[in-house]
Design a protein that fits this description.
Elements: H1 2-35, E1 39-43, E2 47-49, E3 55-64, E4 72-81, E5 86-88, H2 90-95, E6 99-100, E7 105-114, E8 122-133, E9 140-151, H3 160-183
Parallel strand pairs: 2-9
Antiparallel strand pairs: 1-3, 3-7, 4-6, 4-8, 5-7, 8-9
Length: 184
């Protein structure tokens, strides 16, 4: 009878140990999978208009949730952008913090967009993604923002010298008419 009781106690201990390990593993998985989505990213002006040959600046604010249990590392970025526009992410790489603790936020230049002189009129779209996570090597998608660049049709504004020439010609014509009336 004693052998049976000892065998039963050993099996219960093994089962209890296995169950506690399973609970710890599940809790660990749940906490790390929920950790990756702990920041928000907002552009101050997600839709901008510019003419060909100019550069636009996009400012943003990044917030770490107050509910975070640890530090969120901002390790890199990824982007998409319609051609021929080009994006320079130096603002993010040099100005934004490397990490944010719970409740922290940062506002500043996120990126710039350059419009080559030959850019056709139209609406150009893009997205900017911040990568990072629970450590300095994580590359999870933390936040994504979409943006639009509107390039209007080039206006037919005359050069100042053309306007000056036209004004001088009209003034001369007016003086000639007034002189002719004064003689008659």
């Amino acid at each position: 009878m004693m052998k049976i009781m000892t065998k039963f106690n050993k099996q219960n201990k093994k089962m209890a140990l296995s169950l506690s390990m399973l609970v710890l593993a599940v809790a660990s998985l749940l906490s790390t999978s929920a950790f990756a989505d702990t920041i928000t990213l907002n552009l101050s002006n997600a839709v901008q208009t510019a003419s060909a040959g100019s550069t636009l600046s996009f400012d943003a604010t990044v917030n770490a949730s107050n509910a975070n249990l640890g530090t969120v590392f901002l390790n890199g970025d990824s982007l998409t952008l319609d051609s021929p526009l080009t994006l320079d992410d130096t603002g993010f790489l040099t100005n934004f913090p490397l990490s944010l603790d719970a409740g922290d936020f940062f506002s500043g230049l996120l990126f710039t967009i350059s419009l080559p002189p030959e850019t056709a009129a139209g609406l150009y779209t893009g997205s900017f993604v911040i990568l990072g996570g629970a450590d300095a090597s994580a590359q999870d998608i933390l936040a994504t923002v979409n943006f639009n660049v509107n390039v209007p049709e080039a206006s037919q504004v005359p050069e100042p010298s053309s306007v000056l020439l036209l004004a001088t010609g009209l003034m001369s014509l007016g003086i000639a008419v007034a002189y002719k009336r004064a003689i008659l």
